[in-house]
Each structure stands twice: as structure tokens, then as C-alpha cells.
Amino acid sequence: MRRRLVVTVLVLLLGTALALALTSTLALRSTLVGQLDTQLAAASSRGGEVRPSEGGDRGNDGVRTLQDPGDGSRGDAAQPPPFLDVAGQRTGTLGMFVTDGTVQAAGYLDDAAALQTLDTAQQQALLTVPADGEPRTVTVPDLGDYRVVGVTQPSGEVLYTGLSMAEAQATEAAYLAIEAVVVVLCLLAAGAVAALVVRRSLRPLDRMAATATRVSEMPLHRGEVTIPERLAPQDTDPRTEVGQVGAALNRMLGHVEGALLARHASETQVRQFVADASHELRTPLASIRGYSELVRRSPEEVPESTRRAVERVESEAMRMSALVEDLLLLARLDAGRPLAREDVDLAALAVDALTDAHVAGRDHRWRLDVPEEGAVVVGDAARLHQVLANLLGNARVHTPPGTTVDLRVVPEPGGVRLEVHDDGPGIPGDLTPVLFQRFSRGDGARNRAAGSTGLGLAIADAVVAAHHGTLTVTSAPGSTTFTARLPASLSPATEPG
Ligand SMILES: Nc1ncnc2c1ncn2[C@@H]1O[C@H](COP(=O)(O)OP(=O)(O)O)[C@@H](O)[C@H]1O
Ligand SMILES: [Mg+2]
């Protein structure tokens, strides 16, 4: 834009200068030619008063020898005409006397005011001029441009008189040269000034672009967001167009910041509500469990159907408690609560988790593969234990008895890889894309019986993500593998919250 503005200004200026130069040069030329024509008329009338035969008062001896083409008649015709020799004729004047189409005399006054004869070619050039008294421009060979007028004398002879245009042309050339120099200097100055002014007035745009770039690089997608970037008042002057853009940019930034804060506030409210609701449900659930246990253990005789109903109440209350705990945990992870940061030996954690799974699932075959030297990462031991428990629990609950489950802990450069593999039936295909979403679960009879909630993998994924790791799955009938990659340390800069 900068370059375009400067170039436009220069092109406009150049166009104006050229138009001015052209018109003034044409005006100058017509004035000079007009002057020349006036002088020519005077010279012509002066010359007309002298007949070629009468001769002048100046001797021709010195110049007569110059032109003699060898043809006798022509030689006579090329005598310098005496009518040039009258007082008042200036240098550069040429004259030719023609009687009945025959050149009687032809010559010109050179720079030293000496008479010179015209050769045949020069005479021919003069003869192209009609003898009507109108001045015309003729290029005379070797002599240059002349204004020439042909006048028919009362005696019938024609007198051609010419005045050199050399002086007028020199004046015009000098004028053009001066004009060119002035135009070039003016253009240079105008270009420099225009570049300066344009750069000055567009500098706020640079600052706007820089501000916009910084904002676009800010992490606005999560957490509490403020946009501290604003343009300085000098760039938001509403009296200039650029300032109006700056002011609009500031308003937009304020608007975006307000919207993000409002959105974050409402998200926080929803999370807080879920957390509060889960928390509030814990106590009544504990009471229900307690009372049903009380009834179950009561020494008094209760009818069999009542006892079964109470047992059912107790087991459902336990399931609901687990669900509430899961919801509470997810709400806390969403809120970005800081995790514990301690050294966790995933090998030891895996041994614990597998022992628990073994106890719970005696019909499955459990295999463990951990490095002897251990595999330490920085993180939250309780949460990481939960990840293993959820994955092993799934491998137990969602596979038939006799399935083999492998748990491997593999140290990797920069972290640790956890793998839970089973040779069960695999994950239903339609479930795969939404596997890690909340409340997504297969709806087999086994699931319903096992009290499936669909929160286990969502929690595992959220915990691994909070440790800046990744949880992935590959599944086919006969081979399902969950892989969690955890970095060895949580760098302080990227810690959530
Ligand atoms: N190892 C596995 N083998 C087969 N299906 C699985 C396995 N792990 C998970 N699934 C499927 O993924 C669903 C979601 O698992 P999850 O989020 O832990 O919820 P839940 O276990 O409460 O059903 C399960 O309902 C089950 O259908
Ligand atoms: Mg589960």
C-alpha cells in the first residue's frame, strides 16, 4: 500500500509536469515562429526592393568561388543574390530569385555575415515552397530548418526569402533542458516527501497488525482468559481513518474478552453445580447404605422377599455411590484442580493394580511384565492407580471368563508406556469413535449386569491428559490394547490450572 500510494502520487505529478511542459513548449514554439515570421516578412520586403541585376554595395569576390557545380548555366544561376546584400539583413538569411522557373541567383549569409551561394539541392528544397506569401518550414540540406516565404513580385519574378530557425530551436532546446531538470528535481523531492508522509500515517497500521498477531497467538481456548493487549490512545484517534480502525480493534478485543470471561464463568458455574450436586449426594447415599445394612443384619426375623429387596437397595446404593464418586472426580479434573506431584513408580503401581484385578477376576488369566528397575514418573499416584484399575476392570468385566489379560510397563525415552492387552471379543465398532466420551458404553447384557456407567474410560483419559500424556486404543476381535503414554515429568510451564 505504501509503495502504491507513493507511486501513484509520482505518476500523477509526472503526468501533470509532462502536460505542462508540452503546452508551454508548444506555446513557446508558436511565439518564436511568429516572431520569426514577422522578421521574415520584413526581410522579404527588403529583398524585394533590390533586383538581382542591380547588385549590392558589397563586393562578392571572396565568396563567389565557393559554388561552381561545373554546369555553366547553373553556375550563373548560383550567383549569390545581391538582394541579401542590403542593409538590415541579418546572418542566417537566405534568398533566391527565380524568373520563369529559372534560378537567377541564390545564396545566404553565413555566421560571419559573408555571402555564400546555395547549391542545386538546396535550391530544389526552396522551390518546394509555393509562391503565395505564406511562411513555411523547410529543411535545407546542410543548413538546417528555415522559415521560407515565396513572394511573387509585380514583375512576375519570384523571390524566396528564408530565415534560419537555428536560434529559435536552440532557445526551445534550452528551455526543454531546464524544464527537464526542474521536473526531475521536483519529482525526487515529491517522492521523498510522499514516502515520508505515507510511512508516518500508516505506522499505526503496523502496530495494529502486531497487536492482532500477538492476540492470535494467545491460548484463548481454555481456562480463564483475559486479553491484556490494547492499542495505545495515539493509535485510536477517532478523527483519522486509521485511528477509527484502531478504536474498532480495541472495542473488538474488549468484546471478545468479555464474551470469553462470561463463557468461562458460566462453564465454571455448571462444573461447580455438578461437583456440588455429587458432593451433596454422598451423604444421603451413605445413610441409605447404612440403614439397609442395618436391616440386613438385624437379628429380627424379616420375610425373605423383604431381605432380598433390602439387599438390592444396598447394592444399588453402592453402585450409585461409585457413580457419584466418578462424577465428582470428573468435575474436579474439569476444573483443572492441581494434581499431586510426586515420584510415582508405575511398576509398583502396576503390581498393586494387577493383584487387585486378580483377586476380583479369578476366572481370567493375568500376566504382568514390568521392568525390574522400576519406571518412575512425576504425577498423582492415586489418579494413576485409578487409570490402571479402570483399564484392568474393563478387561475383566467386558470379556468372557478365561480371557488372558497382559499388563506391561515399558520405559521409553522421556516417559513410560502402559499397555493393557486382552484377547477378548474386542470393542464394538460403533463404540470406537466415542469410546472416551462420558456415558458411552456398550449395551450388552454383561454390561448391564456389571453395573456399567460409561465413565471409566472418560476418567482414565482425563487423568492421562492432566499428566500431559495420551491414551489410545486399538481393538479387533481377539486383541484389544489400551496404551497410555506418560511423560517422565510435568513441566511447570504446562501444568494445568
Ligand atoms: N477391554 C475391553 N474389551 C471390550 N470392550 C471394552 C473393553 N474396554 C471397554 N470396553 C467397552 O467400552 C465401554 C466403555 O467403557 P468404560 O468407559 O470403562 O465404561 P464402563 O466400563 O462403565 O462400561 C464399555 O461399556 C465396553 O463396552
Ligand atoms: Mg469401565
Give an overview of the whole structure.
With 497 residues, this protein is α+β, with helices and mostly antiparallel strands. It has three domains: 2-172, Beta-Lactamase (2-Layer Sandwich), CATH 3.30.450; 219-337, Helix Hairpins (Orthogonal Bundle); 342-494, Heat Shock Protein 90, CATH 3.30.565.10. Helix content is 51%, strand content 17%. It has helices at residues 2-48, 61-64, 72-77, 120-127, 166-216, 241-297, 304-334, 346-360, 381-397, 445-449, 456-466; strands spanning 93-99, 102-109, 115-117, 136-140, 144-152, 158-164, 342-345, 365-369, 376-379, 404-412, 415-422, 470-476, 479-487. The strands form three sheets. A six-stranded antiparallel β-sheet has the order 3-2-1-6-5-4, with helices on both faces. Strand 5 and strand 6 (158-164) form a beta hairpin. It is rod-shaped. Residues 55-77 and 492-497 have low confidence and may be disordered. It binds adenosine-5'-diphosphate and magnesium ion. Adenosine-5'-diphosphate is lined by residues 390, 394-395, 398-399, 422, 424, 426-427, 431, 435, 441-442, 447, 452-454, 456-458, 480.
